[in-house]
Write a structure and sequence with these properties.
This protein is α+β, with helices and mostly antiparallel strands and 68 residues long. It has one domain: Arc Repressor Mutant, subunit A (Orthogonal Bundle), CATH 1.10.10. The protein contains three helices and three strands, in the order E-H-H-E-E-H. It has a three-stranded antiparallel sheet with strand order 1-3-2. A hairpin with a 3-residue loop joins strand 2 and strand 3. The longest helix has 10 residues. It is globular, with a radius of gyration of 12 Å. The relative contact order is 0.22. The mean pLDDT is 86.
């Protein structure tokens, strides 16, 4: 399945892909999502979660480190 679109703004990554991008475990991203910390999450349906590349980049650039 092709995930790339015309710009990075519309590129989506799965939780494992986003975790690899951030150098954390997928479980860490899941935990951050439950706590409301970490990068923005896009829910598709009841179970599917994806992350916009632009949101991951903003999270990294902000230098934020979730605690907990």
């Amino acid at each position: 399945m092709e995930k790339k679109f015309e710009s990075d703004q519309h590129q989506f990554l799965t939780r494992p892909e986003a975790a690899a991008y951030l150098h954390v475990k997928p479980q860490t991203l899941s935990s951050w999502a439950v706590k409301g910390t970490g990068p923005a999450v896009c829910k598709i349906g009841k179970k599917r979660v994806v992350y916009r590349l632009i949101d991951l980049q903003a999270f990294v650039e902000s230098g934020l480190t979730p605690r907990g």
